[in-house]
Every structure is written in structure tokens, then in C-alpha cells.
């Protein structure tokens, strides 16, 4: 197994991407420390992991609260002996479909502020433990590694927030690399399965996502979990300050 004996903290573990990565990690032998704001929802995902024979712990943690994040990371490090992986999949805010020229400052800045706060706090808490160990992986999701802006669909501050995450990943990789810590992003062109069936715009969004790919299909939840597990394993030990492209050819490197 790729992650046997590893401890992975996942923030936003009840969301579709958090769940997909949690299942991928657990299948490869990691003990998953699943966090979120709602215990009932956390336990539902944990039950799926246990049903597959995986190891999981749950904790209610607000991934925008510095004290809660630090206290939880300290508990994991003390009880499990290490924090080998930290992955933040919390939602950053709604995508309103409003042009920037017509958007209020409050709506624009919400995902930017949320991204800056949660990504800084969660990676910092993990990095402090990883520095002591001399190893670890900070995993990110989304972003386009500085490629083209999104066309034909207004996503407000969300794309700006993703650019912030990309820059943070690069800086963390530079500062933490000498301590044996890697920082990697899974670069996605959109996960069709994550779009709610009741979303009135779903068909148009699916067509846009799939239409931009070379494979004529989008990455699936299983794809996300499998690539995440590889990226955080020792098999990927030389990958850092990088995005792993799972856009199915929507972005050509």
C-alpha cells in the first residue's frame, strides 16, 4: 500500500472532494483524521471508510479558526506520532455567476479571504509538526498553475483565490523543502460528479467541462483519490512546488 503507516489530516472531509481523497488515502493504508463542522456528516464518511476496512478518526474542527486547527493538529501529532499529510478541501464560497464589473466587494473578497485564512492556518499547523519530523506533504486541490483565466462563465473571486493558493504552494515548497516537506497541487478542470443534480446550470457546466478535455471525459472522484494517494506517497518523493494535471487534457502543459 502506498500510504501504509501514514497519518493524514483532511479539512472539509464531508465535502465531495474531501470524501474522495479520504477514501483514496484509506484504501492505500493511511489513517485518515477527518475534520469538518458537522459530526453527523463526518461519521457518515467515516462509516464508508470503515466499511472498506480503512482506519479513520473524526473531529469537529472549524478550518477557519486558528485555535481549533492548532489544537487538533497537536492532538493528532501527540496521539498518532506524526502528521504526514495535510489536505484542505473546505469550500471557499459560492460562485455567483456575476461579472466582476458588477460584483460587490463583499462577494468578490469572500473566497479570497477564506482561502488565505484557511490555507495559511492549516498548512502552518501541519508544517510545525512536519519540520520536527523532517518530512511531510501539503496537498492542495484546484487552481490552474497560472494558466488561462476562465472564459464564458463568471466565477468572481474564486479564480483569484485559486491563484493565491498556487502562490502559497510555491512559497511553502521553497521554505519547507530543506526540511523534507513537499507541497503539491492536484490541478483539475472540474469534477462533473461534484455538481449537484438539482443545479439548474448543471448540463451547461458539464458540457463546458467535458468539452474542453482531450479525453472527452472529466476526472472522476476515483481519479482524484488515486492521484492524491500517489502524490502523497514516497513514490512521488521528488515532486514538489508542482501541480499534477488531472484535467483530462483541458489544460496542456
Characterization of this structure:
This protein has 253 residues and is of the alpha/beta class. The chain has a single domain (7-241), classed as Rossmann fold, CATH 3.40.50.720. Helices cover 43% and strands 15% of the residues. The chain has 7 helices and 7 strands; from the N terminus they run βαβαβαβαβαβααβ. It has helices at 16-27, 39-51, 66-80, 105-133, 157-176, 202-211, 221-231; strands at 7-11, 31-36, 55-60, 85-88, 136-141, 181-187, 242-245. Strands 3-2-1-4-5-6-7 form a 7-stranded parallel beta sheet, with helices on both faces. The longest helix is centred in the middle third of the chain and has 29 residues, at 105-133. The chain is globular and about 50 Å long. The relative contact order is 0.15.
Question: Topology of this protein?
Answer:
Blueprint: E1 7-11, H1 16-27, E2 31-36, H2 39-51, E3 55-60, H3 66-80, E4 85-88, H4 105-133, E5 136-141, H5 157-176, E6 181-187, H6 202-211, H7 221-231, E7 242-245
Parallel strand pairs: 1-2, 1-4, 2-3, 4-5, 5-6, 6-7
Helical residue percent? 40-55%
**What is the fold named in CATH at topology level?**
Rossmann fold
Q: Please, how many helices?
A: 7
Determine the strand fraction and express it as a percent band.
15-25%
What is the ordering of alpha helices and beta strands? EHEHEHEHEHEHHE
Query: Mind telling me the CATH superfamily name?
Result: NAD(P)-binding Rossmann-like Domain
For the record, the count of structural domains works out to 1
Q: Can you tell me the residue ranges where pLDDT is under 50 for at least 5 consecutive residues?
A: none
GO molecular function: oxidoreductase activity
Protein name: SDR family oxidoreductase
Family: Belongs to the short-chain dehydrogenases/reductases (SDR) family.
Keywords: Oxidoreductase
Amino acid at each position: 500500500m502506498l500510504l501504509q503507516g501514514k497519518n493524514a489530516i483532511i479539512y472539509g472531509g464531508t465535502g465531495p472532494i474531501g470524501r474522495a481523497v479520504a477514501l483514496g488515502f484509506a484504501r492505500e493504508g493511511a489513517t485518515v483524521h477527518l475534520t469538518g463542522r458537522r459530526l453527523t456528516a463526518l461519521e457518515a464518511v467515516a462509516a464508508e471508510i470503515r466499511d472498506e476496512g480503512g482506519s479513520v478518526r473524526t473531529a469537529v474542527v472549524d478550518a477557519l479558526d486558528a485555535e481549533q486547527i492548532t489544537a487538533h493538529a497537536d492532538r493528532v501529532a501527540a496521539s498518532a506520532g506524526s502528521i504526514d499529510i495535510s489536505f484542505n478541501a473546505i469550500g471557499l464560497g459560492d460562485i455567483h455567476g456575476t461579472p466582476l464589473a458588477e460584483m460587490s466587494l463583499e462577494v468578490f473578497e469572500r473566497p479570497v479571504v477564506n482561502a488565505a485564512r484557511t490555507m495559511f492556518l492549516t498548512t502552518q499547523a501541519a508544517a510545525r509538526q512536519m519540520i520536527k519530523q523532517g518530512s511531510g506533504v501539503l496537498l492542495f486541490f484546484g487552481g490552474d498553475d497560472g494558466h488561462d483565466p476562465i472564459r464564458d462563465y463568471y466565477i468572481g473571486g474564486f479564480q483569484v483565490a485559486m491563484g493565491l493558493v498556487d502562490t502559497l504552494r510555491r512559497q511553502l515548497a521553497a521554505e519547507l523543502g530543506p526540511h523534507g516537506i513537499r507541497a503539491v497541487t492536484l490541478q483539475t478542470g472540474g469534477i462533473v460528479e461534484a455538481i449537484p443534480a438539482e443545479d439548474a446550470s448543471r448540463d451547461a457546466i458539464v458540457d463546458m467541462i467535458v468539452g474542453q478535455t482531450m479525453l472527452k471525459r472529466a476526472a472522476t472522484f476515483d481519479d482524484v483519490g488515486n492521484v492524491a494517494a500517489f502524490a502523497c506517497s514516497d513514490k512521488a518523493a521528488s515532486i514538489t512546488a508542482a501541480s499534477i494535471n488531472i484535467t483530462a487534457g483541458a489544460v496542456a502543459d
